[in-house]
Amino acid sequence: MKKIERAKAFLQDHMDLFQCPICKESFNKIEGNSLECSQGHSLNISKKGTVHFLTKTMSNDYTADMLSPRYRIAQAGLFNEMLEAVYPHIDATTGTTIDIGSGEGSQLNYLSQLGLKGKQIGFDISKDAISLAAAHFDNAFWCVADLAQSPFASEQYDTLLNIFSPSNYKEFHRMLKSNGKCLKIVPEEEYLIELRSLLYRDREDKQAYSNDKVVAKFREHFDDTQTDTIKYTFPLTLENYHDLIEMTPLSWGASPESIDYARSHPLKEITIHVRLLVGRKNQI
Ligand SMILES: C[S@@+](CC[C@H](N)C(=O)[O-])C[C@H]1O[C@@H](n2cnc3c(N)ncnc32)[C@H](O)[C@@H]1O
Ligand SMILES: [Zn+2]
């Protein structure tokens, strides 16, 4: 089936998962290649099978040239062990899962390779990220949207994934079903530590990282929070290493000299050290 036909079939069957980003009413039909709400607002379904739900242009620091390196290193398995630790926390593996700030889609796709079934949606504010996700992966419906003003209907989602991405807990609670779960991954102190010490060799203030504030904020919004720490090292080929430098926001704060230094001193392995936060929405 063509990508656009698959997306149209998904939207037709699961219109109740969405709400119009303009008037917040529900969508009620597909007319040609458009999704239409009850107030007559119409959104195009692209040939790639994606929908662009943003109502205005949004800026984003994650540029297109970071996406292919992230795709390649994710495919090489950098995050696999982390996702294998996340997967058992998903209760409703046949329910509805949404990946919030999905980037180029590898994480949600790997969870589906691990056995995740049911309805899957991945969205990101970056149009380039969603184009890549839709080109590579058919396990989910991919769309462009803002997590702060999302076009997703209330209380329809069993599992929210929020992996290295920003949060908006008001929206997350609105979207979650009663008793649904939010699974958030944040870096821990030693996340990419070897690369951090190369890129920030001249910036001692930037060498340490603490997630205390992010974790505290999550706990404020989920009375029932469990946490788990995941740590492992991943062996790097030279190609993986160069992709790692390109894909990480760590490079943003580094001086051009330190980036050159890091490029010419390749690492043989890298530490993945993250905190998994599991929040359950109270039963109503
Ligand atoms: C570090 S990347 C993580 C991507 C992916 N989850 C992964 O682990 O590979 C953070 C992502 O959050 C997205 N993002 C930032 N602000 C957003 C927003 N307001 N709404 C949706 N996505 C957003 C960025 O475009 C970027 O793709
Ligand atoms: Zn509308």
Automatic annotation (TrEMBL):
<feature type="binding site">
    <location>
        <position position="191"/>
    </location>
    <ligand>
        <name>S-adenosyl-L-methionine</name>
    </ligand>
</feature>
<feature type="binding site">
    <location>
        <position position="23"/>
    </location>
    <ligand>
        <name>Zn(2+)</name>
    </ligand>
</feature>
<keyword id="KW-0489">Methyltransferase</keyword>
<keyword id="KW-0949">S-adenosyl-L-methionine</keyword>
<dbReference type="InterPro" id="IPR025714">
    <property type="entry name" value="Methyltranfer_dom"/>
</dbReference>
<keyword id="KW-0479">Metal-binding</keyword>
<dbReference type="Pfam" id="PF21302">
    <property type="entry name" value="Zn_ribbon_RlmA"/>
</dbReference>
<dbReference type="GO" id="GO:0008168">
    <property type="term" value="F:methyltransferase activity"/>
</dbReference>
<keyword id="KW-0862">Zinc</keyword>
<feature type="binding site">
    <location>
        <position position="37"/>
    </location>
    <ligand>
        <name>Zn(2+)</name>
    </ligand>
</feature>
<keyword id="KW-0808">Transferase</keyword>
<feature type="domain" description="23S rRNA (guanine(745)-N(1))-methyltransferase N-terminal">
    <location>
        <begin position="18"/>
        <end position="54"/>
    </location>
</feature>
<protein>
    <submittedName>
        <fullName>23S rRNA (Guanine745-N1)-methyltransferase</fullName>
    </submittedName>
</protein>
<dbReference type="GO" id="GO:0032259">
    <property type="term" value="P:methylation"/>
</dbReference>
<feature type="binding site">
    <location>
        <position position="20"/>
    </location>
    <ligand>
        <name>Zn(2+)</name>
    </ligand>
</feature>
<dbReference type="Pfam" id="PF13847">
    <property type="entry name" value="Methyltransf_31"/>
</dbReference>
<dbReference type="GO" id="GO:0046872">
    <property type="term" value="F:metal ion binding"/>
</dbReference>
<dbReference type="InterPro" id="IPR016718">
    <property type="entry name" value="rRNA_m1G-MeTrfase_A_prd"/>
</dbReference>
<dbReference type="InterPro" id="IPR048647">
    <property type="entry name" value="RlmA_N"/>
</dbReference>
<feature type="binding site">
    <location>
        <position position="41"/>
    </location>
    <ligand>
        <name>Zn(2+)</name>
    </ligand>
</feature>
<feature type="binding site">
    <location>
        <begin position="104"/>
        <end position="105"/>
    </location>
    <ligand>
        <name>S-adenosyl-L-methionine</name>
    </ligand>
</feature>
<feature type="domain" description="Methyltransferase">
    <location>
        <begin position="96"/>
        <end position="188"/>
    </location>
</feature>
<feature type="binding site">
    <location>
        <position position="79"/>
    </location>
    <ligand>
        <name>S-adenosyl-L-methionine</name>
    </ligand>
</feature>
<dbReference type="InterPro" id="IPR029063">
    <property type="entry name" value="SAM-dependent_MTases_sf"/>
</dbReference>
